[in-house]
Structures are given as structure tokens and as C-alpha cells.
Amino acid sequence: MKKGDLLELEITGYAFEGKGVAKIIKEVHSQEEDPKKFVVFVNGTYPGDKVIAQIGKVRKSYAEARVKEFLYKSELRTEPKCNYFGTCGGCQQQDLLYDYQLKFKEEQVKDIFERIGGLKNFVYLPIQRCNKEYYYRNKLEFSFERKRWLTESEIASMQEIKDKDFALGFHIPGLYDKVIDIDECFLQSELSNRILNFTRFFFKSRSISIYSTQNHEGFLRNLVIRQSEKTNDLMINLVTSEENERLFIEFTEALVYQIPEVTTVINNVNLKKAQVAVGDYEKVYFGPGYIHDYIGKRKFRISANSFFQTNTSQAEKLYNTAQEFAQFMGEEIVYDLYSGAGTIPIFISENVKQIYGFESVEPAIADARVNIEINNVKNFTPILADLNKSFLPVAEKLLLPKPDVLIADPPRSGMNPKTASDIINLKPEKVVYISCNPATQARDIKLLVDGGYQLLKVCPVDMFPHTYHIENVALLRIK
Ligand SMILES: C[S@@+](CC[C@H](N)C(=O)[O-])C[C@H]1O[C@@H](n2cnc3c(N)ncnc32)[C@H](O)[C@@H]1O
């Protein structure tokens, strides 16, 4: 089989990152003697689809293919809600019925745990669905770009396209210099769409320049909207390459006049070449410079650059699941690894004796300290520590008592193997492992199982409907 071959495929499974797994029905045009020995993954397909697909990347045991023609569309499909579906990379599975999104995510976690981790004999609890299928995010990050993605009809119209050099929206997957101009996104609120459109209008009508990664010139970089779910707080954070106080004052006044629901306006100034929506410093132009939101009954301060779970209601379910798994009795010493702004420690603080949080980002530690004050919590100590190194010397130096329960919620890359071996050396009775990447989670859990732990329970929580992202909680106990 080689690149360019056409095959007739029946999609029989759902695999990593939502790709359909295909059974080859017939070779339409291929040089390969026996194409059936390959597994073929097809983007944007679901079990039940029949397609003619063209082979792209070919590896030893598998190939990737793109749909050329649908012969039959699966019954599991639904009409996507968004006009940008298929071009914008945001909601890859909006055309799959939500019940099946959940079913496939659930099956995938089980498969990953069995296949990558070799893990068996654990209780597998059903995935927790998200009550809101749309408008569930409290944060959206848009990009400004000089090259606007042109639609097929625009290209086909053969007319001169006047405003192709100004876009505010989302990057096209895989094309980091092209942005699709979005005027309606169903992930945040209607209000968020109004802010997006007002911001575009304001800067486009004044011909304000957009930062370019090619020559590193231009002003506008990102628009970040953070909207509290449980309070009326609403933050607008505009990321630019330099300061322009006069323009910012004008923007802020016009924005607050048009959209009085806005409670704070911030300018993050990113002097770096890297395309990240985080500034080297920030200036507050309106309001306090932060917002508040609640997870359960606990109130948290969120600044422009702090990590906060992006689906507030599901974060509560996630933390409740972690808490139920731990079965606290009130006397436990708990270590929370990758503790961020201290949201998990503060959430569980009433039910344990003492918590120590380990986190490497200084502003997150600063946020944790503020959150301790707001919630009047006396039994949580945030500690600055880089978990790419052993944290045992830090714990020893501070004379910390050994933990009864350890919670870990690492980034997508999972734990450093040193962290897993630290846990094995410390021997907390229970480990609750939260992850947004079940593949690295299963890999790390295998290390813990080899080091004397038993995997007892697993429960996925759907934080991100219409995407293939999976959040998962696991409970281990020392044998
Ligand atoms: C998925 S977030 C979880 C945060 C928190 N548990 C929550 O629910 O909001 C992962 C956290 O790990 C932190 N982190 C990433 N790499 C780290 C490292 N090497 N050492 C310590 N913390 C790290 C990040 O700053 C982030 O706060």
C-alpha cells in the first residue's frame, strides 16, 4: 500500500483521537498485493460509515486515510450545529450523537488501560456525562492572524476578496499561520460571541496591525475571554506585542459601553516570539484584573494567566469523584501533586487533616495563597516544586509528615518516572490519579502497579463534549 491509493472501507471501530478504524472491503486502485494486512485509520469517520478513502501516511502496520466519498453514512451521525464544523479544529465530533461520544470515550479508556497498561480486574464506572452539551467552557482563546482562511465558496466566487488579511478566530488544524474568522462559537456564551465580534470590528475598522510570526512585527496577538459560570464576572484579556495605552483606553471605553457585562479588561504584553497567549507582564485597564468562580461551595480567584479547569460544573464532578475515591475519614495527611491554584486541596480541606500541594508555577502558588485566604482554609500548604525532579528532598527538608493519600493531576505528558518512584518509596495507602490523557495515565499506573499498588477503580468524566479529549480518575491502593 502506498500514498495515494484508493480503498473502499467500512468503519468498524473508534480509535485514538476519534479516528475511525476501517476494515478494507476492496482495493479500488492499489499497487499492494494484500492491502488487508494494514489497519487503516480514517479521520472524521464513525463505526457504520462506508467510504472511499485515499491513503496518506503509511507506516509498517497501519496507514492513515482521508475520505474521498461517503458511500453510506453511519446511523450514529447527527447534523453538526456549527457552520465552521469540519474546518475549525475545535469540536471534531459535533456530527456524532452525544450518547455515542460518551460510549466511545468510555470504551477507549478501557482499551487503553488494558492494552497500554496491561491493567485488568478493576471496577470500571460509567463515564459521567456533561449536562451542558454546548456553552460549557469558561475560557476561550482566540487568535489574530494576517492570513484569513478562505472558504471554498469565497475561492470559487472568483471575485476579489477585500478583507483576507484580517482574521480573529481559531487556527486551522495543522496550519499555524491560518485562522478561520469566527463570529459564532457554541463553546462559550452568546455574550462571548458579542465580545468577539465587537473586538474584531473595533480593531479592523481602525486598521490596527496583527502580529506576524514571520517578521515579528504587528500589534494584536490574542483575545482571551474568561467568563465565570457561577458569578457574573467576565474578563477580557487582549494579548499584544507591545503597549499602546491610548488605543487601549479607547478600546476599553468602547467595549464597556457596548457590553456593560464586562467586569475587567486586561492587556497582556507578550514580547516573546512564541505564540502563547501569556504576557511577560500585564496592565489592568478596567476592574480588578481577575474574576471569581466557584467549584462546589469554594470560591476561587482566577487571574488572566492562572490555570483553572475550563468546565466549571464538570470540575465539581471530577473533584467529587476524586474525593469519593479517596474516602477521607478526617485524619489524613494528603499530598496533592501538580496542585495549580490549590483548587483540589481547598475543595477537600474540610474532610482531611492536612494537605501539602506541589506545583512548579510561581503565579499558581501565589493564586493558591489568595484562594486559601478567600476560603479561610488553615490546613493547606502550597509548595513550589518542580516535579520533573524528585520531590522527596523537598518534603524531607520541610520535615513534612508522610502522606496517607496522594492525589496527582499532571499535565497531558503525565508523570516523570521519578515521581512514580517517589510515590512507591513514600507508600501512601491510596493514590488518586486524575488525568486528561488516559494513555500517559495508564503508562504511569503500570509503574505504580509494578511498584506494589493495585488499581481498584476507574471513572471517566466528560469535561469536553464534541471533542475527543477524555478526563479520567483512577484509584490505587497499596497491596
Ligand atoms: C492539569 S493541571 C491541574 C491543576 C489542578 N489540579 C486543577 O485541577 O486546577 C496541571 C498542573 O501541573 C503543573 N505542572 C506542570 N508541570 C509541572 C512540573 N514539572 N512540576 C510541578 N507542577 C507542574 C501546571 O502548572 C498545572 O498547574
Textual characterization of the structure:
The chain has 10 helices and 22 strands. The chain folds into 3 domains: 67 residues, Beta Barrel (OB fold (Dihydrolipoamide Acetyltransferase, E2P)), CATH 2.40.50; 199 residues, Vaccinia Virus protein VP39 (Rossmann fold, 3-Layer(aba) Sandwich), CATH 3.40.50; 157 residues, OB fold (Dihydrolipoamide Acetyltransferase, E2P) (Beta Barrel). The chain is α/β, with parallel strands linked by helices and 479 residues long. The strands form 4 sheets. It has an 8-stranded mixed beta sheet, with helices on both faces. It has a 7-stranded mixed beta sheet with strand order 9-8-7-10-11-12-13, with helices on one face. Helices cover 24% and strands 31% of the residues. S-adenosylmethionine binds next to helix 6. The site of S-adenosylmethionine (SAM) has 17 residues, from helix 6.
Count of spatially separate domains: 3
**What's the end-to-end separation, in Å?**
48 Å
- The CATH architecture of the largest domain can be named as 3-Layer(aba) Sandwich
Report the portion of residues in β strands: 25-35%
